[in-house]
Amino acid sequence: MNFCYSLLFLLAVCFSSFNAVAQNGKQSVDSGAHAFSIDQCVTYSHNHSFDVQQSLIKIKEEIQTNRIYTAAALPNIVGIGQVQYNPQVPVVSFGNFEFAFGTRWQVNSFIQLQQVIFDGQVFVGLEARRANIDYAKANAALTEHKIKINIYKVYNQILVAKIQLALLDSNIVRLQSLSHDIALLYQNGFGDKLDVDRINVQLKNIETNKSKLANNVVIGMIGLKILMGMPLSDSLCLTDSISENELQLTAISDSAVDYSKRLEYQQLEYAKRLANYDYKRYKFTYIPSLSLTAQGGANTFRNQFDLYKGVYYANATINLNLQVPIYDGNKKQAQVKMAALRRDEVLCNIQSLERNIDRESTTAVLNFHTALDNLWVQKDNIQLSESIFNQIELKHKQGVASFADIRNANSDLDNAQSNYINALIEAVNAQIDYFSAVGKL
Predict the structure, then answer these.
(1) pLDDT (tens digit, 9 = 90+) per residue, 16-65?
(2) pTM of the predicted model, to two decimals?
(3) Going by DSSP bridges, is the β-strand pair 33-36/76-85 parallel, antiparallel, or unpaired?
């Protein structure tokens, strides 16, 4: 049977370099053992996925960046010590008299305090602190959401693969029985050796397909562990199962989608807030800034390097500094226009995302309805194909149906099972896409 494991095979390519050993249920000698539902897999990934951990580090980085913004508004105090040596002391001439203006050695030591009183850019930076952290958190949530979708799809594809393995087992039992019956007919002179060989070839092909599929399940489990951030040495048992009834009972609403439930939309809303702050920050560059500088210290002057002797003279100054922007080559103007363009770009992205959400949600609903309808058709086809095969097998035993008839019936049953498996995975993925599109996942 042909089964399209799009994501499962992608993971197989990515992780085929790992030497996978088939896991034995819940037992593991030297590693952890886990029996997880799909939601437990998602919860585990929140604490162990490397991508999630990196996004959480980004939040911590933003917190430290905010501390830098805060520091700009707090007093800045530094202590400064300076020793100055003048190899040639300056000379001042007054008529016929010349005086050495200074000494060879000079020591200055002081403490300086700087405090911003008003600076628009600093204050806007303080306002934007919360938005910066919210934006980082939105990025982390979006990363977790993408991992969650992949976990759901890979988990369910493995479950579907196990359903397919069960079908292959039943096919093997059916062909083994058929092979036995045809061999008896041949031995009794009522059959053809060619028929025996053909049925055995089919049986070996199914056994080979089962072996390949079982290997793909192991590779899929490796991919699932990678997504979750679970060590490959740990054993993982999947406890959920796919229920057709639950697929049918999924609540689908064709009403308008609430954009705010989509994490991508939330992220752009935070980006819009940051763009507004950025625009406001550059607008404030046109406004004068005011700061206070206070300095107190002591200095001394010597012609010999005996700085520890003598008198140190105290000094103190307090300055109120007003900085008025006059002309900067239109730099501020360009910065303001650039910030306005970035803000407009975010607004365009929001409008574009709204249209994409509308399209995704509408398409997801239609695809899910179609996938469910196809699933029921393929399920009915399996039952019909099984009934036809059983009838032809009975007629073959009675000698009123040829081997070609029973071979065709078996092939039709295989195709019906393959179509059912494909329809099942399409329905499961359509359900996940629907939940994701409307913000319910």
Answers:
(1) 333 333 333 333 333 578 999 999 999 999 999 999 999 999 999 999 98
(2) 0.78
(3) unpaired
- Token digits of residue 295: 């300095």
Q: 6-17+30-437 in CATH: which number?
A: 1.20.1600.10
> Which of 128, 137, 136, 131 minimizes the C-alpha distance to 69?
128
Domain-wise residue ranges, the chain: 6-17+30-437
Q: Rounded to an integer, what distance in angstroms lies between the CA atom of residue 416 and that of residue 377? A: 10
Model confidence band, residue 228 (pLDDT cutoffs 50, 70, 90): very high
- Determine phi and psi for 169, rounding to 5 degrees: -60, -45
As a dihedral over the C-alpha atoms of residue 64, residue 68, residue 74, residue 75, rounded to 10 degrees, the angle is: 120
pLDDT band at 358 (very low <50, low <70, confident <90, very high): very high
* 410, 392 contact by CB (below 8 A): no
Residue 311 half-sphere exposure toward CB, CA atoms < 13 A: 3
The SS3 call for residue 402 is coil
Report CA 130 to chain centroid distance, whole Å. 23
Q: Facing residues of 33 across strands?
A: 235
Measured at the CA of 230, the angle between CA 227 and CA 236, to 5 degrees, comes to 100
**E strand or H helix at 324, and its extent?**
none
Residue 45: closest CA among 230, 249, 179: 230
β-strands 313-323, 91-94 pairing: unpaired
**Rounded distance between C-alpha atoms, residue 412 and residue 415, angstroms:** 5
Q: Give the residue among 162, 157, 141 at the shortest CA–CA distance from 11.
A: 157
Type of residue at 64: Q
